[in-house]
Amino acid sequence: MNESETAKMPDISGYSLRRALSLIRKIGLTPGRITYVDSKLRHYQVLEQDVPAGSQVPKGQAVNLVIAGKSLIRALPAVYQKEDSRSGEFLKRYLWIASSVLNGLESDIDHLHEYFDPMKAPQAFFRWLASWFAVNIDFAIPEAKLRMLVRESVTLYRWRGTALGLAKMLEIVTGVRPEIIEGSLPIREYTIREEKFLGQRTLDNAIIDEKTSRHLFTVTFPVFSSEFSEETIKKIHQVIREEKPAHAQYYVLFVPPADQRKSKDLWIKKNVIDDRMVF
User: Fold this and answer.
1) Is 3.30.10.20 the CATH number for 3-116?
2) Percent residues over pLDDT 90 in the chain
3) Could you count the other beta carbons within 10 Å of the beta carbon of residue 218?
């Protein structure tokens, strides 16, 4: 079995239950049976783990935990707390059934603030949290970047429709900060002009006039286009179309740093995925 199919079990003794479960899932293991025992230690603290710390185990293996808890028998009159009698011991074990249910609810209440933190919210609640900010969660990007997008959503809304806001949005989605220049073209600009030649008037062919160029902008990424997958480039266009002003048109360029590129290393991609100039 190679290392990619196994995980190294960390020592989670003393961790809070929520932190321990998060770490177990993060390394590819599965939370198993959780047993609560009466303890004077901090509530919901991990006391034991059945998988030894430092051992290599197959991913997906269940990890059983023993957690510090408080028996409900403490809330009963002293006469019911006698452990030397058979009935007292039975009552204590019986109350653990209700305690295991309440312990989970108490843990959720104790960490309620984390539900409203995009970086800590449980995955099942996160999609609902994202909908509060009208964030498009259909982007096929890693969850960590999606959480960052929700965290920055309020700031992004303030700058929506501006070069600064679009650049920040693209940086979160791609991990690369682009340069956005408004009123700029990736090609040499031509204007309409009238000339007299041999007594006749001629008119130059117009590629684009100055008035139209005011509503154009270029988005330049300082990397090779090969560093982005086809899906990522599609996401770039999706983000730009959703965030740009409706009347504006754009071009996406990939221009690596001067010390890394050759004379032909300039690609413009607009609406298609290839390495040709497309206008």
Assistant:
1) yes
2) 8
3) 19
